[in-house]
C-alpha cells in the first residue's frame, strides 16, 4: 500500500509540475487580453497553426549570438526572454553549416547522471553572470529531465533545428550573461523582459 501511494503521489507531482509549467508558458505567451472576435490576423494565424511555430516566433532578424560548434554546427540564439515564473527561456536554432551529416555531440547533455539518463539534450548549457559571479544551470523537473530540447541526434547538411533551454532567472538588474554549451564557443546574450 505504501509503495503504491508513493508511486501515485510521485506521478501526481510530475503531472502537477508539467501542468504548472505549461500554464506559466501559456500565460507568458498570452496577449494583453481583449475580445477573441477582435483578434488580429497574426493572432488568428498562430491559433490555427497548432504547435507549429510561425515564421516570427523564436526568430529575430539578427541573432543575439552565434556559438560555433564542432564539425560545422552553429547555435544561433534568437531570444532570451525573462518570464514571470522566475525563469529565462533561451531560444534559437542549431544549424549544420557543414557539407555532411553531423551527430550532435553527446557532451551537450552535460555530465550529470540524472540528466544523461533521459537522453541526448542541451542539459549541459549554463548561463554565467560574471558581475554577480553566479552560474545558472538548465532547470530540471522532479524526475531530473532537463527543461530543454531533447532527443537530439543527427543533422543533415544545411538542416536547422529549433531549440530552447530554460534557466533560473538572474536578478532583474542582470541583463547581459554568457551562454555556454559544451563543444560550442561561448557567447554573450542580452536578456529581455
TrEMBL record:
The lineage of its organism: Bacteria, Bacillati, Actinomycetota, Actinomycetes, Kitasatosporales. Keywords: Signal. This is Lipoprotein. Transmembrane segments: none annotated. InterPro entries: TAT_signal. Residues 29-68 are annotated as: Disordered. Residues 40-55 have a biased composition (Low complexity). Residues 1-26 form the signal peptide.
